[in-house]
Amino acid sequence: MKKLALYLILICAAVSFIYPFLWMAFISLKSVGDAGARGLLSSFFTLQNYKAVFMEIPIGRALLNSAIVALSTTASVIFFSSLVGYALAKLRFSGRETVFMIVLLTMMIPGQLTLIPLYTLIVRLGWIDSYPALVAPWMISAMGILIFRQTFISIPDDLIEAARMEGCGELRILTSIFWPLSKPAMVTVGIITFMNSWNEVLWPMMVVRRQEMMTMPQMITTFSVGGQSGGELGVEMAASMLLIIPILAAYAFFQKYFIDGIASTGIKG
Amino acid sequence: MRTVFFTIIFFLFAGSSGAIELTYWTSSNPEEIELGRLLVRQWNLSHPDVQVKMQPIPATQSSEEVLLAAIVSKTTPDVCSNILPAIMGRFTKSKAVLALNAFPDYEKAVIGRTGAKLADLFRSRDGKLYQVPWKCNPVMLVYNTAIFRALGLKPPKTYSDFARAAETIAADRNNPGRWAMAVSIKTTWWQRLFDFYPFYVAATGGRTLLCNDSAAFNSPGGVAAMTFFRDGFKKRYFPMLGFSGNIFLEGKTAMDVAGPWVIKYYRRLKPGFEFDFAPIPVPDNYKGPVYTYGDPKNIVIFATTKYPKQSWEFVKFLISKEADLKLLELTNQVPMRREIASDPFYGGFFDKNPLLRKAARQAQYVVPMDESQHLVQILDIISGQFEAAAVYAVITPEKALAIAAKKTQALYDYW
Amino acid sequence: MTTGDERKDAIGYAFTAPYILFLLVFTAYPLLFSFYLVFHSWDLITPPEYVGLKNFYFLMHDTDFWQALLNTLIFLAIHIPAQVVFSIMIAMALAEKIVAKTFFRAAFFLPVIISGAVVTILWAKLYSTDTGIFNQLLGLAGIAPVKWLTSTGLAMPSIAVMATWKNMGFYIVLFLAGLLNIPAHLYEVSKIEGTTRWQDFWHITLPLLRPTMLLVVVLSTFGAFSLFIEPYVMTGGGPLNSTMSVVLYMYKHAFLFQHMGYAATIGFALAAIILLVVLIQKKYLDSD
After folding, report:
1. How close, in Å, is residue C112 to chain A by CA atoms?
2. What is the domain range of residue B109?
3. pLDDT in tens, A94-118
């Protein structure tokens, strides 16, 4: 009896969490006249809303921009954060503790404080409407450094000594020994960074004005708020679907990493 | 090394001696792009030594933002013809535009065309003239002639006329759910340019929002205009919904507030749709000509230009008699040329386009917005008070305008 | 020997140099520049003008700012308790021995990974007065349509409910981890003493969840003070400024009015308020 109530609660909750997305998916596949219908199922499905999105706004370009920005941010965060993480975990140099303290400190600065000055910096650098504006300020993350440091510390020093004996440079040691040994950490950092970058909307809205440079969330927001969609529900939902499909696909494959990674680091978008 | 240097110099000169190239930015709406292409082609054919390259301002956001961004990055064009006079304050403050009255033939070219009275409205506060008055879109009352005919209505001249018309429209049993007019309940600053501001201008006989850096709108005329909208929302002449799409065109409303740019737009979207223009309604006791907001767009030469003289020649070409006719024909917007409605040169066009003759007559009674670096913020403040006093009616129009005036004062006091 | 140390030092510096450079440009400089900006008036075009404490003075008297702060606090006051209560409830349900646990966890986590922009656009449709599903469901029960986003009293609570829905999966997982860390033998003891489950919850579960609670509260405070895209998309800050958040207000000053100095001052004040609120939370939740 108790179990039954438990399942009832869980199923109701799960439905309320999934239904809106299903509704969105179905609306995006319905024809214009059908969209108002209450139920999910329709007599037939069509891709006309998706075609309309591609006709009305440069969504292909936005997808490309988002992919370029999110992938290069992710690659950069993994590379540079692991570099610093390795130095903090395995290299001895004066000032190491100071750097570590700084990493921890930067995590406590509320983003709202630096947002406007950061924007004026981008303006002064002449980076408005460019990829550097979207990528450069997020190239290294304190969270990434901490995760890599944590992971690398537990890797025995003997491995490093052995590699050094064989004449390996530190960079070689990092890339060919430490990276393969810390795949879960890399996936975690990669997923969190990619997700945050892919979903970010405030920053692009600040530094991008030209439609050709907009990322997906920005494009969809201006499309929806700016009234360009003409209030056509199906078209708006189709545009939104295009934004979430890549993340959903990644979620389907790396679900465990998403949940455990995001929860264990206490960071979210 | 030296040879390389000289070679570079040589090519630089060789490159520039061939032909001067000017960059010209236009608005991005299709009609104006067409006009710009046509004029630039004509110019380039007759001026092989000064070639003009035209470029529409990117359409994703307001042209003001694009222009300000261009000024920041020093990438402004030589000439731009889509300048909202209200933001000129910031352009002149940053010395981004040239003072045009320095050109010896300025008087003849600009005052001769526009007339001293209208041209004076665009005089900067330092006494100089940085902009060429180009064209306007007098904001007027548009009404659906079919609905008005069916209900035996005449276009409303006063607020009482408007109320009577609205009651008649609401009482029409054959068309339940039709509204007198749709007024945006959004608070985006420029929305007020199509409701409160033209009604305010009309009610005050052509006043603008500011006078000597302080609010002029907290006046009987301002209160009258605000009360008009408050009553309209209260008596449900205006719907309280955020509609999307063009409900006037669909016949769900009988009136709208718009400029002559809608003529082409309506004809394209709904051929055969019958509509006409009338002056903005005024308070019952108002006497005199009905003024309105002109929505003017002007031409400037940016200070970044290397060729001020050539740019000026091109600007004069853009405001020539023939170019103004093309402007009328292609964009259905009104050149700021005095007595254009009765000028025989344009008579043929107006005979074929009586709607535009109305707009051109109205164009003699238009005002721009004030030149102020705070203008957007002032309109934003008014918009917020419009929402409070008119849309939701939680405070009185008097109170709302007093608050707006106080907030406006604070802007000048602190910045 | 010295040379070896120097070599090590050199590698250490080489590995951290990109980060230091990055830090100087994108963290230290903006941080310092924010101290400069709050004393200046700057529209990006004309040179910055020193205005002393004018920005702060204007902020003190800016009723719109205080309204935005109040709105944000209202959001916080609804969002955080709702977040904590519902997340604990579902986490406790998931902590029981049930089938399809992974499925449920994944389902609750789904909104967390989806862009806030999409979630907001989607919910704006669900909240729609005429065609939204909430009013359709109410209609089935014979209840008149509710103005979820267009009435001053309901707009911010509606946004808070949506935000709770969006982030709950994340906090469920945090609480679940916290619950699984509680040693089972503690409950065994209470069984012997014959306490009720409710007493167990108050005397064992809740106290031991305190660290998780603090984490959840602090994280959602940071999140709640960043409220931006939700009101931007759904209400534009209206009706009557009732959903104008501080970040949206800052954005408006920076990008509509080009008041960089004042926008930076708003950010500065907000950061101070966030730290203050977090300190208070720490004081009440951290004391053992």
Report:
1. 8
2. 18-130+297-335
3. 899 999 999 999 988 888 899 999 9
